[in-house]
Design brief:
Length: 90
Amino acid sequence: MNYLHSELQLDSGDMVEITLDHAANVMLLDTANFELYKQRKPYQYFGGHAEETPTYVAAPARGRWHLVVDLGGAPGTVRAGFRIVASQPV
């Protein structure tokens, strides 16, 4: 299983801006769901299939998150970059 992975510390509402060289799956997972992902078991995530770049995923809660980019089993490779856009104080 080929995928790109980054571990992030995010606050609730932080946006992750992801740039891709072509369409890919972009997922933000908590640690438990990342472990399920690696074991190829059912898992839950935030994000989805991104066809436009940049694409954004919001952190639903404060904590450690795993940003995963993959091609869903399709052949090929993807290049990706990201930056964290901090949430705005209210």
